[in-house]
Structures are given as structure tokens and as C-alpha cells.
Amino acid sequence: MTLYGIGLGPGQADLVTVRGKEVLESVDVVYSPGRLSRTVALNHVPESKIGDLDFPMTRDEEKLRAAWKEAAAEIAPQASDNDAAFVTLGDPNVYSTFGHLRRTLDAFHPDVDVEIVPGVSAMTAFATAFDVEIEAGAGLALREAANGHAPTGPDRMILFKITDAPATHEKLVAAGYDVTYGRRLYMEQGETVITDDPADIDERDYYTLAYAVKRDLDIEPATARFEELGDATGVGERA
Ligand SMILES: C[S@@+](CC[C@H](N)C(=O)[O-])C[C@H]1O[C@@H](n2cnc3c(N)ncnc32)[C@H](O)[C@@H]1O
């Protein structure tokens, strides 16, 4: 039998993929690492299917290892007798708790088969939420920027775990970036905020990311000239 790692997408129930929904409906038990992912899963499965797991809110690596061992010990027998799922927000392979579980299962329960169902990651959903295009050929780096940190270097960055937007902002602007912030994008719970002003999001909320783009980037895709050409030929005036 199989343990499915299912990516639920950013948080709205209808952004779960068709495959994710089908697998959720087919398994016997669904484990969730947190309240939000559990709420999304509950749109697709009854509460009676939700398994019991307890994760401590700590950064203490020893406590975390113990919690993952305990979670793996709970899940492994379920996944040997029946199909089971472990859900995460976004994609299970992008900055996700599922990675810890998979490594712990590999170490202590290598007989458990694992399959992953990808989900819509915040890493790509931000582009639509911000109405920006990462055009073909452009580079986009993923970084973490918790506690006021501000990594720099790449032309465009998506920054996860923004917990002190004003401090991060000051450093990014000084390093020559324009920055847009997104909080709770495509989430049902809490307020969605998209802003260029870090003061709008100075209260800490874990579900906050930033898109930073170098101010002096000079991008002109071939199609950018359509507007000019349209004016010249009148095409731009049609309907
Ligand atoms: C541990 S990572 C999980 C990423 C997730 N696996 C994914 O693929 O989207 C958590 C970080 O992702 C970002 N994030 C995840 N979902 C988000 C959302 N709906 N809106 C804004 N940021 C989000 C935040 O920066 C948050 O601190």
C-alpha cells in the first residue's frame, strides 16, 4: 500500500488538483501537519478520515526529530495496511514538511511506498496574484527571508517566510530591488493583502512572501513592439 504526499495548493479548496482530490477521496486516512491544511482537506474528505498527528511548534531540532519519528511510527502501519495521505499546503516538494516525513520514513520504515501528487505552489501562484509575468528565459531564484533578512544577487527573487517586512524591505530597496508583498494569496482563511508598502504588513503572518526584482532590469520581449506596430496599422483599434 502507499502513502501519498498530496499538495493542496495555496489554500483555496478549488485549487486542489483533480488528481489530488481523487486520491484524497480514495485513501483510508488523511494526515495533516497543521490547521490550515486540515481545513482545506476537510473540503474533500469527512472529518472521520482525518488521522491524529501532533506537531510541536518548536525549532529545537531534537524535539522535531522526535516528533517526526513519532509521526512516521503512526503513519507507517496505516500505510502498510491501507492507502494513506499526508497533505501539505502548496507543493509537497517545495520547502515542505513532507520532506521531513519522507526522510524519516526512509530511515525507519523503508518498506513504505511513497507517491507524490504535486500541488500549486505559492512559488508560482504569486505571479498570477501579482499579475506579473516571468517571461521565458528569465531567471527566478527562491530564497528564505525570515527575521528581517534580505538575500540579494539574482535579478528576480521570490522570498518565503517574510516575518519582518519593514526590515527586509529597507535592505532590499538599498540593494536596488523593487519589492511586492503577498499575504495569504489564494487562501480562504484570513485576509489577502498584496502591497508594495511593508507598513501594510508589519504584523507578522507566516503566510507572507515577497517578489523582488532588480530596479534597473531592461526587458523588452519581441512582442513588446506590437503596441507601437498596432498604432501604426490601426490593428490596436479593433474591437
Ligand atoms: C514552508 S513554506 C511552504 C511552501 C509550500 N510548500 C508551497 O509550495 O507553496 C511556507 C512559506 O511559503 C509562503 N506561502 C505559502 N503559501 C502562501 C500563500 N498562500 N500566500 C503567501 N505566501 C505563502 C510563505 O512565505 C510561507 O512562509
TrEMBL record:
<dbReference type="GO" id="GO:0009236">
    <property type="term" value="P:cobalamin biosynthetic process"/>
</dbReference>
<dbReference type="GO" id="GO:0030788">
    <property type="term" value="F:precorrin-2 C20-methyltransferase activity"/>
</dbReference>
<dbReference type="InterPro" id="IPR000878">
    <property type="entry name" value="4pyrrol_Mease"/>
</dbReference>
<dbReference type="InterPro" id="IPR003043">
    <property type="entry name" value="Uropor_MeTrfase_CS"/>
</dbReference>
<keyword id="KW-0489">Methyltransferase</keyword>
<feature type="domain" description="Tetrapyrrole methylase">
    <location>
        <begin position="2"/>
        <end position="172"/>
    </location>
</feature>
<keyword id="KW-0169">Cobalamin biosynthesis</keyword>
<comment type="similarity">
    <text>Belongs to the precorrin methyltransferase family.</text>
</comment>
<dbReference type="InterPro" id="IPR014777">
    <property type="entry name" value="4pyrrole_Mease_sub1"/>
</dbReference>
<dbReference type="Pfam" id="PF00590">
    <property type="entry name" value="TP_methylase"/>
</dbReference>
<dbReference type="GO" id="GO:0043781">
    <property type="term" value="F:cobalt-factor II C20-methyltransferase activity"/>
</dbReference>
<protein>
    <submittedName>
        <fullName>Cobalt-factor II C(20)-methyltransferase</fullName>
        <ecNumber>2.1.1.151</ecNumber>
    </submittedName>
</protein>
<comment type="pathway">
    <text>Cofactor biosynthesis; adenosylcobalamin biosynthesis.</text>
</comment>
<dbReference type="InterPro" id="IPR012382">
    <property type="entry name" value="CobI/CbiL"/>
</dbReference>
<keyword id="KW-0808">Transferase</keyword>
<dbReference type="InterPro" id="IPR035996">
    <property type="entry name" value="4pyrrol_Methylase_sf"/>
</dbReference>
<dbReference type="GO" id="GO:0032259">
    <property type="term" value="P:methylation"/>
</dbReference>
